[in-house]
Amino acid sequence: VEGESFTNIDGKRNALTPGTYENCTFTNCNLANADLSDIVFVECIFEQCDLSVANIQNTAFRDVVFKNCKLLGLHFENSNALLFGIQCESCQLQLSSF
């Protein structure tokens, strides 16, 4: 998936399809407790999203920007380390580990 915008996605009802998301924007998405394992995010922007306690086993974050997001309890040490790069702007980043 390339260059798409996703708004108000509810990860409990509509899980993201596994694959690669490149240059995509996610706005006001509730991905708390969602299974994001094995998904690749490349140069994506997450704005006002909740990813708390999401499963990010082997998830790739490559030049990903989080703006005003809730990132509680994420285990980044279990994500894909290849080219890992995130930027957090005005985010809640508690109880997460790297």
Summarize the structure in words.
With 98 residues, this protein is mostly beta strands. Helices cover 0% and strands 27% of the residues. The mean pLDDT is 94. The strands form 2 sheets. The chain has a 5-stranded parallel β-sheet with strand order 1-3-5-7-8, with no helix packed on it. It has strands at 5-7, 20-22, 25-27, 40-42, 45-47, 60-62, 64-67, 86-89.
Q: How many beta strands in the DSSP annotation?
A: 8
Major sheet description: 5 strands, parallel
Helical coverage, percent range: under 10%
Report the end-to-end length measured between terminal Cα atoms: 27 Å
User: β content, as a range?
Assistant: 25-35%
User: Looking across the biggest beta sheet, what order are the strands in?
Assistant: 1-3-5-7-8
Q: Give the mean pLDDT.
A: 94
Poorly predicted tracts of residues? none
Radius of gyration: 12 Å
Q: Given the helix and strand composition, which structural class is it? A: mainly beta
Number of helices: 0
Short description:
This protein is mainly beta. The chain has strands at 5-7, 20-22, 25-27, 40-42, 45-47, 60-62, 64-67, 86-89.
Which features characterize this protein?
single chain, 98 residues, mainly beta, five-stranded parallel β-sheet, three-stranded parallel β-sheet, globular
Write the layout of secondary structure elements.
Elements: E1 5-7, E2 20-22, E3 25-27, E4 40-42, E5 45-47, E6 60-62, E7 64-67, E8 86-89
Parallel strand pairs: 1-3, 2-4, 3-5, 4-6, 5-7, 7-8
